[in-house]
Amino acid sequence: MSLIHDTSTAIQALNQLNIFGLAAMICDTSGVVQLLNSAAAALFQQEPGYLEGQSVHEFEALAPLSKMIKDDTPQITPQKLQLFDHLYCLVRMQKIGRLGFLFIFDDISDLKAREDDQLATLNLVMHDLKAPLTAIKGNADLVQNSGPLNEKQQKYLDRLMRSVHIMDGMVRDILDMAWLDAEEPLVVEPINLTRLVQNAIDVLGSIAEEQQISIEYQLPDVLPDLEGDYRRLERVVVNLLANAIKYTEKGGKVSVQLWQEENQQIIRVSDTGIGIPSEYLPHIFKRFYRVPNQDKRTEGSGLGLAIVHTVVERHHGTIEVESEPGKGSTFTVRLPLRHTFAD
Ligand SMILES: Nc1ncnc2c1ncn2[C@@H]1O[C@H](COP(=O)(O)OP(=O)(O)O)[C@@H](O)[C@H]1O
Ligand SMILES: [Mg+2]
Predict the structure, then answer these.
(1) pLDDT per residue over 52-82, tens digit each?
(2) Which of 2, 183, 268, 312 has the most CB atoms around its CB within 10 Å?
(3) Around ion ligand 2, which residues have CB less than 5 A away?
């Protein structure tokens, strides 16, 4: 539905948006730029005449808009896009009947630059934290192996190790998130998921044991190699397993399955834990999101599942979750054996 029916109303509308300082542009249904107001021309640092007649499907500096049209992005959801070399903006798109599409642009270049700075600083700090953390872990191991400890000493050492483990997880999450944000390419090689899943289970075995949680697993001995980024996919499994353990009460069970179906390999991590109420399920893969009032174990960054989701997506796979409060949760990751990783 639209109030803009013809070209003259469109021109009027763009001029009015201009008065409010809003940069706006209209493309026809085939993506050819028809009109832009002077706020948009100023934002793009281009002459309006130069852009009119260009197709967003062919003109590289406007290509992100092409994707928006093709994806038919839900109309109210603004997208953060880079246009030209110099511009980051928030773009809203509205279908306007037979005229095509109306785009409205908000310049967020300053905000983006600030965010990049913050992320870079955070990244540096996290890198710097890694060395002392490793030293603490190493020395705690030395204490553990330096002879019999009395009960109190063992208790304090266990506590220390738990805190180190939590901190280590948070540092890794933030580094992983920064890595994903930088859109660095995956390191793709043939990998054996049985070995990868087994490793992840080994990494978390002692923590599960400490919480008196048993990990059951069924891993096929022979499984064809899958093309993927070993390090990143290992973080996927570690994150899912760590959650399963964290959100399950003492005495509970976690199970891991791995199998192949046609040209996909499927990893399933289930737990008998506290579960997630259905109203929160749509949000759990968002950054920093944590389900409220899950009284057990408050520590965490809320980044784990966002990382899992992005890594799976970049492998052209899918992730699904089923959960019932009080009964448990099941996360299922499907990964294609092979894919072109051109992007
Ligand atoms: N296996 C699970 N059982 C119950 N809740 C879970 C499970 N996995 C994830 N969640 C919920 O989803 C939220 C997001 O998970 P995640 O991104 O890993 O963050 P974090 O573990 O740091 O809180 C968690 O805070 C938790 O509320
Ligand atoms: Mg987590």
Answers:
(1) 999 999 999 999 999 888 877 666 678 889 9
(2) 312
(3) 243, 304
